[in-house]
Design brief:
Length: 209
């Protein structure tokens, strides 16, 4: 399998973590989807990463779709439980964490535009979504180790990837200071081999007009 990913992408990191956790070998192709030389649109008409080639030109995209596919292969650990209520709880928290990342991505892109084109209102709007989403993850975790029914799953992977991405791209959101439970949780996630192998790194984004 070939995975098109980007070094800072929290969405691609979720998929990389899932593949590593499940012990599934893959070839990693690093792309910079915002830049003119990106290969992303050759695998995904939306020009986004992650995109996973699963054989004979068959490509899956959107991290949630890829994770659902990986789950059908029945490799442990199970990231989406079979029980419908637990499964939907995981998927809802994954959507929340991804939504925070979407908001941060939009602010990163906005600030990559020429200063005269940037909208402070737009940046503030996205910042509000990100901080509200982080507050909700802290509330949902409470004093527990894992988000859903005390077992590791995609909710934990998604929130772990989200928190590291916020620290990388929006360090002014000082979530560690505010939510000690998320700090403890993040440290535990980042100590897993799958997280240690996929630490996000910044990538230069060409100016967008
Ligand atoms: N919902 C998508 C989001 C993917 C996404 O937004 N990826 C960003 C990188 S973090 C991207 O490739 N953006 C390029 C673009 O929008 O042109 C998923 O979960 O895979």
């Amino acid at each position: 399998m070939k995975l098109l990913s980007a070094k800072p992408s929290p969405f691609a990191r979720k998929v990389r973590v899932a593949l590593i956790e499940k012990g599934m070998p893959f070839e990693s192709i690093i792309d910079a989807p915002w830049n003119a030389d990106s290969k992303a649109s050759s695998m995904n008409p939306l020009g986004k990463v992650p995109a996973l080639e699963i054989g004979k030109g068959e490509v899956l995209y959107d991290s949630k779709v890829i994770i659902e596919y990986l789950e059908t292969l029945d490799r442990d650990p199970e990231l989406l439980p079979k029980d419908p209520l637990a499964r939907e709880a995981h998927k809802k928290i994954e959507a929340l964490a991804d939504g925070v990342c979407d908001a941060i991505v939009l602010t990163v892109i906005e600030t990559a535009r020429e200063p005269a084109l940037q909208s402070a209102d737009w940046i503030a709007r996205q910042h509000g979504k990100a901080t509200a989403g982080i507050a909700e993850t802290a509330r949902l975790l409470g004093s527990r180790d894992w988000f859903v029914r005390d077992a590791f799953g995609i909710a934990d992977v998604a929130v772990g990837c989200m928190l590291a991405y916020v620290s990388l791209r929006a360090p002014h959101i000082e979530w560690r200071k505010r939510y000690s439970n998320l700090g403890t949780f993040s440290a535990r996630m980042e100590s897993r081999p799958s997280f240690r192998d996929t630490v996000p790194e910044p990538q230069q984004i060409d100016t967008i007009h």
